[in-house]
Predict the 3D structure of the following.
Amino acid sequence: MMGERALKAKPDSEKITINLGYVDLGHIDLLVQDGFYSNRTDFIRTAIRNQLERHRATAEKSVVRKRLDLGISHFSREQLEAVRDAGETLEIRVLGLAVISADVTPELAREAIASLTVLGTLQASPAVRAALADRIS
């Protein structure tokens, strides 16, 4: 048993909203109705995956060129303290998910992070986001 405190699971995806024309939406519904896809979301996810696969080589070259870390990057209080204590700062570049631990103070974030580029999602406290606002691109 995990104790009395329940753990809240973080989602492995992010919700987005898109606007589609009525005719495009009708075509999607027709394909769902005919059994090609289980629902609208299934169609949209498949379309996105197909486009990402189509452009995979170009995207991979861009990841290398821009020196992006691909996937999930987690920055703990201990890691950032070690960077700060060494007199260094981080230039963080992530394609995917960047997580700055909830126990990182705004002061520590400013002392340890010189710049932050996230193509995807940044999870950080509102206070840390505000402290890094001028360093986020």
About this structure: Residues 60-135 form one domain. Residues 75 and 100 are 5 Å apart (CA to CA).
